[in-house]
Amino acid sequence: MSPRARATLQRCLRDPRVIGGGLLALLVAGLALFAPWLAPHDPQEQDLLSTLLPPMWAAGGEAAYPLGTDTLGRCILSRLLHGARIALYVGVVAATGAMLLGTVLALVAGYFGGWIDWAIGRLVDVWMAFPPVILALILLVGMGAGVNKVILAIVLIDWTRFCRVIRSEVLVVRRRDYVAAARLAGFTHVQTIVKEVLPAVTPLVITLFSLEMGIAVIVEAIMSFVGLSVEPDVAAWGVMIADARTTMNQAPWGVIAPVLAIFATVLAFNLLGDGLRRALDARLVTSRGEA
Amino acid sequence: MSRIALQLLFRRTLLAIPILLCVSALVFGILRLLPADPIAMSLPPGATAADFEKLRQSFGLDRSIPEQYVIWLGRLVTGDLGTSIYFRRDVGDLIAKALPATLELVLLGLVLGVAIGIVGGLAMFSWRGRMGEQVLDLGTTGLMAIPEFLWAILLILAFGVALPILPFIGRLSPELVLPPPVTGFLLFDSLVTGHLRVLGSALWHMVLPAFALAIGVAPLVMRVLRSSLLDVIQEDYVTQARLRGIPEHTILVRHALKNAALPTISLIGVQGGFMFGGTVLVEMIFAYPGLGNLMVDAVRNHDLPVIQAVGLVYCVLVLGINAIVDVVYLAANPKLRVA
What we know:
heterodimer, A: MetI-like fold, 11 helices, 71% helix, 0% strand, B: mainly alpha, MetI-like fold
């Protein structure tokens, strides 16, 4: 590792946002990974004799159901833990896909310029005319519902978030002397892009990736809330909120628990992204967990 | 409005046409991938194959996809948006009813969000370098981690269920009747026709949904305003104003805020677009009869004519708000006025 890279890494690890967000993200990831061993019950297991139980610390709660139960007597804690797996699966896969597609198009557009840049730019313009949620709904109607379709929809929508920001950075990098030097030294275009341009924009890509994971978690929650993501009996956070919404006045905890889970997960990725952005001194990126 | 502003508006409108054409083709193409048959879903159980074929023909679904698109586009230009498969009503009528409700909600949410954002941004700026700024900064990060639809649910939980003081279903109290439509905008119509109880009830019903949308915008406005105030405050004219003995808060409000407003204005352009997206779930959760609710109903019932028309309307709204923000930006920025 070069001294400069080590200094950058140290700067990242000193930022309280990076540490806080990173630890929180690791916690959520750990809970998701070990959900089958941590969960006290099977997430689908129904106990129709103890429906809508309050959490264990409230009056009438039972220790067997630490966070209470839902309308079908399913353990909220167990569903929450298993829901984390879906949230993180979508978060990681969708953000990776959007990052790959967006970054490749940005590198191509920014590096080669000309008509390719023009064409990709117009494509971004068309995409930007949609509120992301609307495009996601239309895509999911066309492709059919399902959690992998949600991932595909996020990739097909959010590549623009990467493309726009990274392209303008590539435009700056391309004019640097070392890029010209690489070409003079006999590097092909592909070599120049991969060895010279890509490393220069990597900090920005990492920052955007972290923020995109938060966005993807929210989009999955929205889509499972309206019933376009996982099967209705699967424990996803959006499904849990939609189910518990009807009994909110008797058992508010059924709504509050998944809302807190989404909040904690998105907060972790946003803090991480925010901290990395400051530490890596990347171009200011405004982002919103909004689709 | 100045000539340059008009020119800009004209150019933006011209640019919007090819974008909307691409958008419409894209939406149309995606929806034709649909694995399920929307007609089959809308038929009663005892329908025969002949009924099915007749209905398919009446919706034009028996033709090829490019043909369907050209027919749809041709009708669209004449203002005919087709017939809803699920509601069996004219799509144009459905949209004309829902659009004003959404626009009112977005406007109220935007005003509320920008107001909170400006106050918060000024507070963050005045407390710069102190504890208060750190707390607010962390607060904005926290607020941004909760999307609008979760705010909607949390607000209902807090002010509708736990502390039942605000209504959270629909647009009006059930005992009230709608005033005669003048423009279709309920707030405006009830005001001009003197139905003040309707006006009050409608505003009361909009408090929670508008607030849910506002919390989505406010933290970003706060952050952008704070950072542009930090830039502006180092300018020479601020130092000069200080030397003239003008009090700090007067400098802030009279001079700095005006100049720091520009990045905030362009942010609103971006956020306005996202906000229309945010209304979709917020409207659904509050059973507020706007475009978003219509869209969700249409999506659930595979009502293609409604989905493609409403999708297009959303894109027109986004492009429209971007054009308006550009013009406002131009009007607010004297540096751009001499072209």
